[in-house]
Structure formats: structure tokens, C-alpha cells
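Example for tutorial group B:
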């Protein structure tokens, strides 16, 4: 029987660090969004303010997009622990500066956008290093459970973060930022307790540009991995409603900062339930079909949220969306982690992170733009319907996804030749 990951000291430190860091970043994200929208509404109407809110996502996406070819290579070349330590230190300093400016009542829209850009840079480097580090901490047979447990840390932090941020900010903004900086400092200290881990050998016989290309080639040639990654990319890009939560909280549902925290925690609650389930009962059969059904349910839940004007129904819709999204996350991460050689995990993780960020941060920009044209309700509803269409198209374009039964390499390889795909 495989050893449970939480029995391993290094993984426990990793788990707790990710949990604390995710609480802090999720809390800070919801606060920055609230501050941007509140400052914008002093001089702009709802549509214009919603557009600026969406641009926060774009500002975080641009550095990640530009740095993706580099950050994966960095994660496969240098000690992944030190990459995470450095980026966490940057995030801690950024949160402290935001707190100082908020305390001095000297916060402005330009500085909020600069701070969001710093978060984007830090996440660009930390994402591949974090994802590539986890498999180095546990035996291979424990990896599927470790993926689910790691997702619990992320999703539990996503639940707690917005609620903590919304409630503490409503009590006093200084208290909120002090808590965020403190949690990031704890996350940094925990990463320093992780002992030496195996480092993949550097491929000295290949030029760095060739090594960068290898990561993209792996994703392109493995059609099942490509299908899982791109399906998530386009669905969340179109159906991402999180950027408009401040708009819904303030001007549609009229629940204020406290209600915003509850809304922002909704998807995290659903995802955490899914993570807990997979940590006890890992998915083993019909993984492709289950992913397609879950993504369709996600789109339907987002459409329901867009149409709802009743706060309890809105929260319930987000919980369902979060649970459905967790199925997609679980399938995609299991495929990547179980079938990528350790020496390529950083680069493949960087490609995966790029698509995730494109769907999240760039999706926020797309949602903000659509909200400026259709209004917030129209933008969310359009995204939900469009995402349903994408699911149908992907089930036809990538029959490998419908036919995938398990995560085992043999099953994946047996699917691809039947469709004329190139072997990875």
C-alpha cells in the first residue's frame, strides 16, 4: 500500500506552505479587485469600472506570457526550493508595500496595477517550480494521492483566502494586509524547512533553446494531454466569472465586502469537496468522459450564476462550478505529473501554467471587455453558453478524450495510433 504523502515531513511542509501562501494570495487578490473597483467607481460608471477590473487580470497575465519560455527551463535547471523561496519573499514584500500605502491612504490605481504585475512575475516563476517540486517529495506510487492532497491545500486556501480577506478588510484594511504579509512569511519559513530533494540532471548536450522547445513539443505531441489542457483553457477563458464578483457583490446582489468574500469562496468550497473526495477515492476509470461531463456542468453553473439575482443561489452555483472544475484540474494534473519525465516537469509545467493563466487572468480581461460591451450579466451568460459549445467541439476534435479510460501510459499510447497521432 502506498505511503500517504502527509506522513512525509518534506511534503507536510510543502502542503502547509502552499496552504498559507494560497490563503494570502487569494485574500490579496480579492482586496485588490475591491480597491480597484471602488477607486474606479468614484469617477467612472459600472461598465468602465468593470473593464478596469478585468485589466487587472491582463496585467498579471502579460509577464507570465513573456516569461513562460524561461521559467520552465529555470525550474528544470536550478534548485526548485530556492525558486519558491525567492518568489515567496517577493510576494511578501509586495503585500507589505500594499499594506503600507493603504495605511497611509496613498493608494492609487496605477500602483495597484503595478502590484498586480509583481504578483504576475512571482507566480510565473513559482508555478512551474511548485508543481515540479511536489513529485520530488513523495514516492511515485503516492503521487496520485499527493496531487489530490496538494489540490486540497490550494482549494482550502482558496476558500479561506477570500473570506478572510473580505472580513478582515471590512474590519480594517490594515489588519487585512498585516495578516496577508504574515501568512506569506510563514509560507516562506516552511519552504526553508524542506530538506534536500533530488534534482534532475541538466541536459548539457542540448542547447537551452532546444530544451525550451522540448516542453512545448511534449504537450503538442501528446494529444490527450493537449486536449485536457486546451479544453480547460478555452472553457475557463470564456466562462470565467470571478473577475466580475466585485460588480455582482456591490451593484447586482448588493451584499458588500462581506458578501464578496462569500462569493469568492464559493468555487473554492466546491473544489475542496472534490479534492477531499479524490484524496480518498482517486479517479481510476472513464477519466475522459468524466472530465467532459464535469466541464459541461461547470459551464451550466456559470450560466446559472450569471442569471441569478438571489444571493444563496449565486453562492450555490459557484460551489457547483468549483466542484466541477476540480474534476478537470485533477485529470489534467494527473496526466501531466504521471507521464512527464522529471527532467521536463518544469518546462511542461510552464506550458500548463501558461494555459491556466491564460484562462484565468486573460479570461478576466476578456470578461471585463465583454462586460463593457454587454454589461456584467450579459458577459457571464455569454461565457457560459460559449463554454458549452466548446465542450461539444472538443469531444469531436479530440476523440482520445472521450475514449480515455485510465491515466496509465499504455492506455494513452494505445489510443493515439488509432487516430494517426504522433507519439510523444
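The residue assignment follows.
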Amino acid at each position: 500500500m502506498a505511503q500517504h504523502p502527509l506522513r512525509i515531513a518534506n511534503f507536510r511542509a510543502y502542503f502547509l506552505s502552499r496552504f498559507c501562501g494560497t490563503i494570502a494570495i487569494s485574500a490579496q487578490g480579492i482586496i485588490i479587485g475591491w480597491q480597484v473597483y471602488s477607486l474606479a467607481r468614484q469617477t467612472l460608471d459600472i461598465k468602465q469600472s468593470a473593464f478596469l477590473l478585468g485589466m487587472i487580470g491582463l496585467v498579471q497575465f502579460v509577464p507570465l506570457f513573456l516569461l513562460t519560455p524561461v521559467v520552465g527551463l529555470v525550474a528544470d535547471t536550478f534548485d526548485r526550493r530556492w525558486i519558491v523561496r525567492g518568489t515567496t519573499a517577493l510576494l511578501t514584500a509586495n503585500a507589505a508595500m500594499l499594506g503600507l500605502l493603504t495605511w497611509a491612504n496613498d493608494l492609487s490605481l496605477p500602483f495597484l496595477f503595478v502590484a498586480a504585475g509583481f504578483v504576475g512575475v512571482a507566480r510565473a516563476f513559482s508555478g512551474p517550480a511548485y508543481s515540479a517540486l511536489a513529485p520530488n517529495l513523495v514516492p511515485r506510487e503516492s503521487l496520485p494521492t499527493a496531487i489530490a492532497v496538494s489540490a486540497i491545500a490550494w482549494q482550502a486556501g482558496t476558500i479561506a483566502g477570500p473570506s478572510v480577506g473580505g472580513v478582515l478588510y471590512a474590519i480594517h484594511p490594515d489588519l487585512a494586509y498585516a495578516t496577508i504579509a504574515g501568512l506569506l512569511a510563514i509560507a516562506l519559513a516552511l519552504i526553508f524547512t524542506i530538506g534536500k530533494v533530488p534534482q534532475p540532471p541538466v541536459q548539457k548536450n542540448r542547447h537551452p533553446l532546444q530544451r525550451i522547445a522540448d516542453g512545448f513539443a511534449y504537450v503538442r505531441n501528446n494529444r490527450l494531454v493537449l486536449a485536457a489542457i486546451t479544453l480547460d483553457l478555452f472553457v475557463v477563458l470564456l466562462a470565467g466569472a470571478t473577475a466580475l464578483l466585485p460588480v455582482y457583490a456591490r451593484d447586482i446582489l448588493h451584499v458588500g465586502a462581506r458578501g464578496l468574500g462569500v462569493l469568492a469562496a464559493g468555487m473554492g468550497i466546491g473544489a475542496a469537496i472534490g479534492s477531499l473526495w479524490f484524496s480518498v477515492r482517486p479517479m481510476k476509470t472513464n477519466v475522459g468522459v468524466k472530465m467532459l461531463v464535469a466541464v459541461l456542468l461547470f459551464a451550466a453553473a456559470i450560466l446559472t450564476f450569471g442569471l441569478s439575482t438571489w444571493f444563496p443561489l449565486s453562492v450555490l452555483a459557484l460551489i457547483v462550478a468549483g466542484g466541477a472544475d476540480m474534476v478537470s484540474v485533477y485529470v489534467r494534473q494527473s496526466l501531466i505529473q504521471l507521464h512527464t519525465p522529471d527532467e521536463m516537469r518544469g518546462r511542461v509545467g510552464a506550458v500548463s501554467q501558461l494555459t491556466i493563466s491564460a484562462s484565468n487572468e486573460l479570461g478576466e480581461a476578456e470578461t471585463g471587455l465583454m462586460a463593457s460591451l454587454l454589461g456584467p450579466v450579459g458577459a457571464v451568460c455569454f461565457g457560459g453558453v460559449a463554454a458549452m459549445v466548446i465542450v461539444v467541439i472538443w469531444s469531436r476534435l479530440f476523440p482520445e478524450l472521450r475514449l480515455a479510460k485510465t491515466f496509465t501510459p499504455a492506455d494513452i499510447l494505445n489510443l493515439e495510433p488509432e487516430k494517426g497521432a504522433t507519439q510523444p
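The chain has one domain: 5-195+207-418. Compare this with the pattern of hydrophobic and polar residues in the output above.
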